[in-house]
């Protein structure tokens, strides 16, 4: 085998999704809705597959034309920049492939990439497979007072700048963040943008949860800050946007001079993703353009629904003595498990970090699946953060209630 597969063979989703299924656990682990997408995109998908032969055949390599046109129209208004549908957008197989193409196209052997922790786990193996070196900067809980909100986790600008070297090519951020739920404020993004401009770095901004913010937190696109359009690759996901993670439609949006290199990777690897799924997402954006800002908009309805689910899960965790960190955005909530006293003497998990052992115990013995938070940290920092586990709340109320029953019974 090739050496690029060394050291990246373990995958938290492969491992814990199987464990949840094997034990038929109530699943607050992997991040996907256990309910259907909105009717307008489901109908669009059905109409697409039952339409003409074209929907079953190849479409344009870099994105089905109706999709890139509708996305350009939709996002130009949001970024405040006229997006060219054919130059500035690449449609990919999920946000995963947008990220993969970005690293392959932009990172050379020996380049350094700064990753803000906690981070969606695939950034690290993707940087490595491109020959780059990942350099980590953690978001740290503010030292003063109780840490109750994801907004209390911040970057230290000095620490961040100290990681930049002449080899630094890019920084990866994720807002709203998985797993913490932090939604970066404009000032925080401006600080990162200033460093990108000062040190001539690219910014890969993973915004798959862009519509999901709570309590008045506002999602801001770093690409919309002055001087950033030219150096930012914004990554998005139709799966997260329209609650259809299995469709695997994702995208990268950015300046044509950057996107063109990602197209080179894309045309020589997957070529394009499923035509009918792209058609459905195209119609989804068309509809959302028309109803934008009105109560009809799914981009308002979904966060409104998740706001209640977030509060329901938080109240449940608090009632059993698990202190959650309230997320300002996204699908997930992390909670401190250090107050829970359990016997984790399972021979099979010896030597593993505390949160991994705890999650395995909770899945096998109590039938509740979650995800260990140290999986979102580099080996250098994972020890400091192995007292947290992640709960997903994009679930039916009945699923959240079933999880609540398990927690209350055992505590
Ligand atoms: N980035 C983040 C932060 C994620 O949580 C996920 C998982 N949904 C992805 C990227 C990958 O998204 P997709 O399912 O569209 O490939
Ligand atoms: N993004 C999802 C999560 O964080 C899952 C990704 C995956 O299953 N590969 O839970």
From TrEMBL:
<feature type="domain" description="Aminotransferase class I/classII large">
    <location>
        <begin position="25"/>
        <end position="401"/>
    </location>
</feature>
<keyword id="KW-0663">Pyridoxal phosphate</keyword>
<dbReference type="GO" id="GO:0016212">
    <property type="term" value="F:kynurenine-oxoglutarate transaminase activity"/>
</dbReference>
<dbReference type="GO" id="GO:0030170">
    <property type="term" value="F:pyridoxal phosphate binding"/>
</dbReference>
<dbReference type="InterPro" id="IPR015424">
    <property type="entry name" value="PyrdxlP-dep_Trfase"/>
</dbReference>
<dbReference type="Pfam" id="PF00155">
    <property type="entry name" value="Aminotran_1_2"/>
</dbReference>
<keyword id="KW-0032">Aminotransferase</keyword>
<dbReference type="InterPro" id="IPR004839">
    <property type="entry name" value="Aminotransferase_I/II_large"/>
</dbReference>
<dbReference type="GO" id="GO:0005739">
    <property type="term" value="C:mitochondrion"/>
</dbReference>
<dbReference type="InterPro" id="IPR015422">
    <property type="entry name" value="PyrdxlP-dep_Trfase_small"/>
</dbReference>
<dbReference type="InterPro" id="IPR015421">
    <property type="entry name" value="PyrdxlP-dep_Trfase_major"/>
</dbReference>
<dbReference type="GO" id="GO:0047804">
    <property type="term" value="F:cysteine-S-conjugate beta-lyase activity"/>
</dbReference>
<comment type="similarity">
    <text>Belongs to the class-I pyridoxal-phosphate-dependent aminotransferase family.</text>
</comment>
<keyword id="KW-0808">Transferase</keyword>
<comment type="pathway">
    <text>Amino-acid degradation; L-kynurenine degradation; kynurenate from L-kynurenine: step 1/2.</text>
</comment>
<dbReference type="InterPro" id="IPR051326">
    <property type="entry name" value="Kynurenine-oxoglutarate_AT"/>
</dbReference>
<protein>
    <submittedName>
        <fullName>Kynurenine--oxoglutarate transaminase 1-like</fullName>
    </submittedName>
</protein>
<comment type="subunit">
    <text>Homodimer.</text>
</comment>
<keyword id="KW-0456">Lyase</keyword>
<dbReference type="GO" id="GO:0070189">
    <property type="term" value="P:kynurenine metabolic process"/>
</dbReference>
């Amino acid at each position: 085998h090739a050496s690029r597969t060394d050291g990246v063979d373990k995958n938290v989703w492969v491992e814990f999704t199987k464990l949840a299924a094997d034990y038929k656990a109530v699943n607050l682990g992997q991040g996907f809705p256990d309910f259907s997408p909105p009717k307008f995109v489901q109908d669009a998908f059905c109409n697409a597959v039952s339409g003409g032969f074209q929907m079953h055949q190849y479409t344009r390599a870099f994105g089905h034309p109706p999709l890139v046109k509708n996305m350009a129209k939709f996002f130009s208004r949001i970024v405040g920049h006229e997006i060219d549908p054919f130059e500035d957008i690449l449609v990919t197989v999920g946000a995963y492939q947008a990220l993969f193409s970005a690293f392959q196209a932009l990172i050379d052997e020996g380049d350094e990439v700064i990753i803000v922790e906690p981070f969606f786990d695939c950034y690290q193996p993707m940087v490595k497979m491109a020959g780059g070196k990942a350099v980590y900067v953690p978001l740290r809980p503010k030292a003063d007072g109780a840490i109750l909100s994801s907004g209390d986790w911040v970057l230290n600008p000095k620490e961040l700048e100290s990681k930049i070297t002449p080899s630094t090519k890019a920084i990866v951020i994720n807002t709203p963040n998985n797993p913490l739920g932090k939604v970066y404020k404009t000032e925080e993004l401006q600080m990162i943008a200033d460093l990108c401009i000062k040190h001539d770095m690219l910014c890969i901004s993973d915004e798959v949860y862009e519509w999901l913010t709570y309590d008045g937190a506002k999602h801001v696109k770093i690409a919309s800050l002055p001087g950033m359009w030219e150096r930012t690759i914004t990554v998005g996901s139709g799966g997260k946007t329209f609650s259809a993670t299995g469709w695997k439609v994702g995208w990268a949006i950015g300046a044509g001079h950057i996107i063109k290199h990602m197209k080179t990777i894309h045309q020589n690897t997957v070529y394009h993703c499923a035509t009918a799924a792209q058609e459905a997402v195209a119609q989804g954006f068309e509809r959302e353009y028309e109803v934008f800002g009105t109560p009809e908009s799914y981009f308002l309805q979904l966060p409104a629904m998740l706001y209640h689910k977030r509060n329901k899960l938080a109240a449940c965790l608090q009632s059993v003595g698990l202190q959650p960190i309230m997320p300002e955005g996204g699908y997930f909530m992390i909670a401190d498990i250090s107050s829970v006293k359990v016997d984790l003497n399972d021979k099979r998990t010896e030597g593993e970090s505390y949160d991994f052992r705890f999650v395995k115990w909770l899945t096998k013995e109590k039938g509740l699946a979650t995800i260990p938070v140290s999986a979102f940290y580099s080996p250098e920092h994972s020890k400091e953060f192995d007292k947290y586990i992640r709960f997903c709340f994009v679930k039916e109320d009945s699923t959240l209630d079933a999880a609540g029953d398990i927690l209350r019974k055992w505590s």
